[in-house]
Amino acid sequence: MAKVAKKKEPQGFFKFIKWFWILFISGIAFVALIFLSASWGLFGELPPYEYLENPQTNLASQILSSDNKLLGKFYLDDNRTDIKYEDLPENLVNTLIASEDIRFRDHSGIDARGTLRAAFFLGKRGGASTISQQLARQLFVGVRSRNKFETIQQKIKEWVLAIRLERSYTKEEIIAMYLNIYDFGNNADGIRSASRIYFGKEPKDLKMEESAMLVGMLQNSSLYNPLRREELTQKKRNIVLGQLARYEFISEKERDSLRALEMNINFNPENHREGLATYFRMYLQRFMKDWIEKNPKPALEGERDRYNLYLDGLKIYTTIDSKMQANAEEAVSQHMERLQAEFFVQNTKKRNPTTPFLDLTDDETERIMERAIKTSERWRKMKEAGKSEKEIRDSFTKKTEMTVFDWKSDTKEKDTVLTPLDSIRYYKTFLRAAMMSMEPQTGHVKAWVGGINYKHFQYDNVIQGSRQAGSTFKPFVYAAAIDQLRLSPCETLPDTQYCIEAGKHGNMEPWCPRNSDFKYSGKDMTLKYALANSVNTVTAQLIDKVGPKSVVSIVKNLGFTNEILPVPAIALGTELVNVYEMVGAYGAFVNQGVYVKPVMVTRIEDKNGTVLYEYVPETKDVLSKEVSYAMVDLMKGVTQGGSGTRLRHSYNKNNSVYKEIITGYPYELTNPIAGKTGTTQNNSDGWFMGMVPNLVTGVWVGGEERSIHFKNIKYGQGAAMALPIWGLYMKKNYANEELGISKRDFEKPDNMSIITDCEKFVENQKQDIELEDDLEDLDF
User: Fold this and answer.
1) Which of 43, 472, 486, 704 is 20 to 30 A removed from 343 (C-alpha atoms)?
2) What angle (nearest 5°) sits at the alpha carbon of residue 316, between those of residues 311 and 321?
């Protein structure tokens, strides 16, 4: 039987299969070896797993208002505030995935299809970096090297780290981390800062086209910078919108309509010298440095033993109300711009050759300028640079280009050419202002304005500056008299020149104060009328009756910290005080005699929400309820018929008072208001302290030097310089009913023994006189 021949299999096919599997397995082994090598650190050290689980990024500390608005931040290089995935809008997440990593939900850190495509087409049809890989590069790898070999090493490390990140975090956490870590330029570190800086809103409020612009910036925020390359950035935004349509997140019709929209950038720079509550934020910086110094951090091994205000992401909860703060800043700017215009008119070279100084000799002016030169930033920096005194002084007389403050400009700045010496004199021509507003029952400070413009005038006149109080000090004298002598606001004293002889109350010489108008009516005046019209002769009689020591004792209990000499002259406000202390002290009058120390910070938390500090109120009983109410009733007279009456005026174009540049505001306030104006010698300081049942506000206006002032009292009095700011501020507050500013009368204690109703007081006096006469007629 013939043998059947076996069919020969082609040797080449087996060989192909064999080598295919060898190469395939070798390739897998090689890739595995690369990954293992990278994980072992052969391509450079990788962060430990503990660091992956808690990556350290620099976080800005946040300043939060009482109505939960972000007032500002403390940061060094990174203006970053992390937000959670839940706070990201869906349109932003969809835009990110469509533009950067459409298979993000399906891969485990490395997109195989994208990697093979990039390798096959050499990256010409898009890269292969997933969101996880980009996050790994941002967190741990750093800027891509230009060296090809180092680039490959970096890419391998990104793959390894991306896989580890996918194991440690959910997809949602990776998206949030990536958007939080990215630097969008212009101090916009992270998506929250970027949203606020470029569009003036929180991320959750971003529109689709706004999200598309920000996602477009992820490729290169320096290149796609909407402030520098608006057209290029818009083109990139439109490409991103095209990706959304390609993957059916939006329709083509929506894409076209969104592409037609302008970008509408609403640039809100976030830095330490701009924004809301700048003066308060700088006070807060000092407060926090002091708190950090006294409160060491329970640090783990290798960590800092102190909190870092600029890196640790602290949350600082303050008492400031963002709406009231905005109202306060607007009121200061609105009035000071007009007041300054008049001041410039009165201080032209023609009217005042020594502008801006008045009543000074040449030597006194030179001393002021010399002090200003030596305390200037230019002097300090040149001295630190090792320059000689001659070189420094010569620099003050050389003209240079500079940007200076200017009320007339929309930006409040103008470019000019001046010598540094002329710029010092120029800045001294500007009147300064300060105001603070506080809830008297809690001590919570609601608004804080330390000056007219923090960028150009960084001295905080709320708490750093101390000036003479003028007549705003008189209520403390009246309070001592009513407390000790149980006087009624309706008691009368004569308006005649009154002298306290030498040797009495520690007086070295006779003290005979004059009224501001140098006139004496000779009539008996009620205490209420005398305080409302700042009659000095009556105040002198009161301090003589109770003695200066009792007045000093009261003001010390009301929070004043400066040394106050117990001499009669303090009755007219010769002592130095600041707005912060004055507001705290006046708060006790409204709060039924209880002084509550002003508070600005209620709570501090770390980045994880752990409470590090909570405020405990500091209070002190200083006056009785009766005395406090009598004082409030006295000061209501200031706005009912005294120097604060203009708060009651309504607008009348025929009323000459409204033709004046200073007093031309129709406040039209009809609710009960207690207050006190104050004007110091030569009109150097103008004050107004205003009170309603749940808000006490103090305002000061004056020059940097006491020699910078208005010539006459028409413009230089507190009622013209400071009161208008209070009136504008309160009118704005009352326009917003949500603020809850009271329009009611002040609470009167039950069973008042001090009579505040003057008609009743007079009737009682008549009855007492009649009773005395009847007793004299009786024959015992």
Assistant:
1) 472
2) 140
**Cα distance between residue 14 and residue 483, in whole Å:** 114
Tokens of 778: 């009786």
496 vs 187: CA distance, rounded Å: 65
Does residue 155 have a pLDDT over 80?
no
3-state secondary structure 367-427: HHHHHHHHCCHHHHHHHHCCCCHHHHHHHCCCCEEEEEECCCCCCCEEEEEECHHHHHHHH
Among residues 465, 470, 516, the alpha carbon closest in space to that of 705 is found at 465
Calculated CA dihedral for residues 209, 210, 214, 216, nearest 10 degrees: 20
Residue type, 735: A
Instruction: Categorize the per-residue pLDDT at 343 as very low, low, confident or very high, splitting at 50, 70 and 90.
Output: very high
pLDDT in tens, 632-677: 999 999 998 888 888 886 655 554 444 444 445 678 899 999 999 9
The rounded distance, in Å, linking the Cα atoms of 680 and 700 is 11
Angle at 720 between CA 717 and CA 725, to 5 degrees: 125
Q: How many CB atoms are located within 10 Å of the residue 340 CB?
A: 17
**Bridge pairing between strands 61-64 and 315-318:** parallel
The helix/strand/coil state of 44 is coil
Q: In angstroms, rounded to a whole number, what is the distance separating the alpha carbons of residues 511 and 234?
A: 75
* Furthest C-alpha separation in the chain: 176
For residues 558-568, average pLDDT: 93
Interatomic CA distance for residues 494 and 513, integer angstroms = 14
**Tokens 């608004």 sit at which residue?**
447
State if pTM tops 0.90: no
CA nearest 725: which of 756, 688, 675?
688
Tens-place pLDDT, residues 51-87: 455 566 678 899 999 999 999 999 877 788 888 999 9
Look up residue 340 and give its two tokens. Answer: 């300054």
- Give, in order, the Cα–Cα distances in Å from 510 to each of 504, 516, 542, 547: 9, 19, 16, 15
State the chain's mean pLDDT as an integer: 86
Superfamily of chain region 460-601+617-739: DD-peptidase/beta-lactamase superfamily (3.40.710.10)
Structure tokens given for 274:
């701009």
Cβ(629)–Cβ(752) under 8 Å?
yes
Q: How many residues does the structure list for the chain? A: 780
* Rounded Cα distance, 464 and 283, in Å: 9
Indicate the pairing of strand 315-318 with strand 400-405.
unpaired
Give 260's strand partners.
none
End-to-end Cα distance, the chain: 176
User: How many degrees, rounded to 5, is the angle at CA 449 between CA 447 and CA 452?
Assistant: 150
Helix (H) or strand (E) holding 677: strand 674-679
Residues 9, 15, 17, 18, CA torsion sign: positive
Q: Which residues contact 398 (CB under 8 A, 6 or more apart)?
A: 419, 420
Structure tokens given for 534: 């700042």
CA dihedral 99→103→105→106, nearest 10 degrees, is: -170
CATH number of the domain located at residue range(s) 80-269 in this protein:
1.10.3810.10
Asked if omega into 440 is within 30° of 0 (cis), the reply is: no
Instruction: Enumerate residues 6+ apart whose C-beta is below 8 A from 694.
Output: 439, 440, 441, 740, 741, 742
Q: Do domains 80-269 and 460-601+617-739 have the same CATH topology?
A: no
**413 with 403: CB under 8 angstroms?**
yes
Q: Where are the domains of the chain?
A: 80-269, 460-601+617-739
Q: What 3-state DSSP class applies to 301?
A: coil
